[in-house]
Write a structure and sequence with these properties.
The protein has 4 helices and 4 strands; from the N terminus they run βαβαβαβα. The protein is of the alpha/beta class and 87 residues long. The chain starts with a strand and ends with a helix.
């Protein structure tokens, strides 16, 4: 099983496009919302994806990794350069 783990924060304008596009290439999509004040989490859930709340990029990464099945492979998508500075 291939899983796309997508961290997100206030991405309501793009989350649907990213989730739908990712879903074409993986078996499961996980969205980990960093406490967005917009509709990011709602949109992700309405698309039928598992959505989790975690504050901070390291917590998001750890939570997503913990949700991968033992026989799975994770593709971690991040387009936020600020996130990588905090790891």
């Amino acid at each position: 099983m291939i899983v796309a783990a997508i961290p997100a924060f206030d991405e309501e304008a793009t989350i649907a496009r990213v989730v739908i596009g990712s879903g074409r290439h993986v078996d499961k999509v996980l969205v980990c919302d960093d406490g967005s004040s917009d509709m990011t989490g709602v949109i992700a859930e309405r698309l039928g994806n598992r959505m989790f709340m975690a504050t901070g990029s390291t917590r998001q990464l750890n939570l997503c990794c913990g949700m991968i099945p033992n026989n799975g492979c994770m593709v971690f998508l991040s387009f936020d350069p600020a996130m990588w500075k905090s790891l």
